[in-house]
Amino acid sequence: MTERENSIPKWILIVSGLFALLEISVSLSIYFSPESILETVDHNAIGVDYLFYMWATRQFALGFIFGFATFKKSVPMLTIAYIFLLVMFVGDLLIGISQKENALIISAIVMCIISSAMLFALNKRK
Asked: Is residue 43 within 8 Å of residue 108, measured between CB atoms?
């Protein structure tokens, strides 16, 4: 394969970098100010802070993975990251459906479409 065939288009790297920043910023928001994201949760309930920290860690890990894969310009790593993102948003879609929360359903569908499109764009050159 030539260098041109093996390189990732800049727009994919930019979108992936934005996903990295988004996930890390969501993580920090959940960790330092969970009430800004989770308005309907009783923040004084026993053990709920543990769930906040777990969720924040998940978001941070995903942001770190996206950032590292983008920095390395690795198609296999970005593919795995987008598959993880797709699976995560399918889960959010199912949660939104079970909770009858339209905003979560719509955002999950949009993110599933974006994740799928990025997977297609990353792997169509093979």
From this structure: no
Report CA torsion sign: 32, 39, 91, 19: negative
Q: Are 123 and 83 in contact (CB under 8 A)?
A: no
pLDDT of residue 2: 46
- CA-based angle 32:38:42, to the nearest 5? 100
Residues 6+ apart with CB under 8 A from 15: 118
Spatial CA neighbour of 11 closest among 114, 109, 83:
114
pLDDT tens digit sequence for 25-62: 999 999 998 888 777 777 788 888 888 899 899 999 99
Task: Name the pLDDT band for 71 (thresholds 50, 70, 90).
Answer: very high
